[in-house]
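U., I forgot to send this yesterday:
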Amino acid sequence: MQASTPPLSRNAHAAAVVVSMSYIPSDGRVLRQMGCLRAAGWQVTAVGCAANETTVTADQIIDGIRHVLVPRPIWSMRARLSAGVDLLHGRLSDDWRAARDRALRLPGLKELSHQVLAIAADAGKGRQILIVANDWMALPAALLAQEKFGVPFHYDSHELAVAEHETQLAWKLLFPHTIAAIERQAVRHARSISTVSPGIADWLRRSYRLTIAPTVTLNVPDAEALPPSPVGQTHSVLYHGLFKPDRGLMRLIDSVADWPDHFLLTLRGDAPQPRSKRALQKKALNSIARERIALEAAVQPDDVMRAANRADIGVFLPDLETSQNRYCLPNKLFEYLQAGLMVIVPAETDMAAIVAAHRCGIVLDDASPTGLARALSRLTADDIRQYKAAAHAAAQTLSWQQQSRHLSELFAIPLPPH
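Result:
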């Protein structure tokens, strides 16, 4: 592209359709993405799910953006059985169109696709449209719109799609084959691709034989970094986020018994499955260090960083048996940094590369309960103070203002004549 070529996104007739199988008004990455599009001059429409199963799905106008809502998917027992048989049978075929059609039979995807195609039909009425597909579940709609109307699309992968729920045996048996068939076709025909970490970008490049790796846009908050809180005589170690079995939370609780007495653990978040929360509560109550372990409910999104700022150390030591956890650069890592927390993460991960580069915490070769306890016992208050200062400096460097430039450059590429 020549520098003198004006981006078509400045044209009043160019529209971006942002698609996600999520409730977009509370999806931070998608909201930041839409901010980039609007700043580049696009007229943005969002197509996503209702907030919950009982929400009315009438269109909403939020901050000047039209949100088209589809009913939240309901995975009834009948839907699970039907999808399971369909996906299992699909393992016999590598045809991407068959895979796309299987995906469209999953709860919610047909409704999402219907709305996207209705909007994409405007391309035949003199408008030029770009679809922004967030994660693999938005790709069937994008591929259909491209096939029917010639609409180009951008793919933003928030996860390593084929390994997202790899710890669940049924999911691992049924989903990856269909996901890979769809994603392989999509990345070869996407106008542009972005993702959240270098590890996932390199995996996509190698696995689908791309000539250029996807653009990496880190999942950093669009917020001002908070000054670190003072380091006192007791030190608070925080995990915040989802309470899921692969997050290493049971090991965290096991470790507290061997921590020095002035270290406290807070687990703040929600559990997608109630049994996960009950298991954590039982584990904490049975710990000999239970007086130093607190389980707290998640706070509102706007309060996440302020609540975290009261802690000293942010920890995330997930299971590393899956590529998803090894390559992920979760938003919690950057939230810890934005809140001015020292960070502890496992070695040989994309997270470790960030922490090591900015010297804002500890990378554990041994992330077992004993290894974590040993690392904490060596920390002094001055060590924590220095790490927190480095985290604050890292947050100012790893800002959304910086990261958004990568997306803005992709969105500024002119669309081809339609």
